[in-house]
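Quick illustration, no need to memorize.
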Amino acid sequence: MPAPIRGKLYAPGRARIVLGISRSRRVAAPDSVAAGVGQYVGAMGHRIVILGGGIAGTLAANRLRRLYGDGAEIVVVDRDDRHVYQPGLLYVPFGLTEPEEIVRPRAKFLADGIELRLGEVERVEAGDNTVFLADGTSLPYDVLVVATGASLLPEETEGMTGPGWNESVFTFYTLDGAVALRDALRSFEGGRLVVNMIDMPIKCPVAPLEFCFLADWFLHERGVRENVELTFVTPLDGAFTKPIASRMLAGLLQEKGVALETEFATGRVDGETGRLISWDERELPFDLLVTIPLHGGPEFVARSPGLGDELGFVVCDQHTLQAGVAPNVFAIGDATNVPTSKAGSVAHFQGETLVENVQRFFDAEPLVGSFDGHTNCFIETGFHKALLIDFSYDVEPLPGRFPRPHLGPLPLLKESRLNHRAKLLFPWVYWNVLLRGRELPGIGAQLQMAGKTAPTAKGEPE
């Protein structure tokens, strides 16, 4: 059995928590849950297990520890003790951050009393309330929180990892890939640079656009921008998934001389001849390809009866975050199948809902459906400027001010140096506030319309 890094194993009188949590509008608990919640609570108290030690699992663990203290035993399971600040991967190819600056130990950010268990998850048997690890260890739970994120699947696209991989075909969505791309960009003197998103969903859907904007800036700084034909290739019918923001971002691409190729469903990559080929046999030549591979859930989800969908993401209620497989299983962050962005801000906003609903589950109370899909993110546009977008399931990004209505100070859906400076401060916020499970002053978990310009009947902001 792997030795725990922090905390204790099954200490008497503690609850054990395995992460995978939810929250939403108030939803009546099924009679079987209200009447039989005791079946999930062991004689020694709650047992909570959290699968995944990224941002979602870490903030959930810390919030639950703050709620229950020594009254619950919380175990976080991950394959390693290496936490990567994923938003920082975007900056590595341009030399704006160093790899070692965005990697820290997972255990450092877990509150005292939380155990970090290192190991690969083999499967979850929800009917038996047990997680099985690859080494044969079994972890029983009263509540399971699945926070294992999304996995890259480059091998799912024909030719992607064949000839040219990490030579002329790269991804910045892994640390090794970002470093290899950095080395290639430093010597890139001209030609066709193609940025391609294979399909949705992906982590941080705006990151491919940010790469285009930063590449434009980087190549200008190197004095070779006029030698480069820069193209953004997407399966979407526009630059982004939301119409108002899509038009605005498409305009920015045009201003910067970045070609936009839409509705391109990539079928294969030919690294030998430098061609990106769609399923309908359209071809785009490249000298350097920056690709965002297909994403899916981790492999153990497919091995866990009833847990995930066809892509390997945990099927759960989009407002309560309760999984469909069993009432004592929840999910949070990129691991879920909820129809919103896979981003750190989403995990942060989901955290409040998840923790409240775990507590309500143990108390045999109706769950709340409070998560509204709230997402916000900065979009680097180069030359020391950035955009900020704030949206939800039902409200697309709109102009306005954030976080204080009309006062801001940050403008929404508008380039500004202030937004760029705010994004530069975000790593500190990430390590010291979000991971710790703390609230951001003045920023609520639910989207606020105050301070935003509502769209007219034609769909444009007034």
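The radius of gyration is 22 Å.
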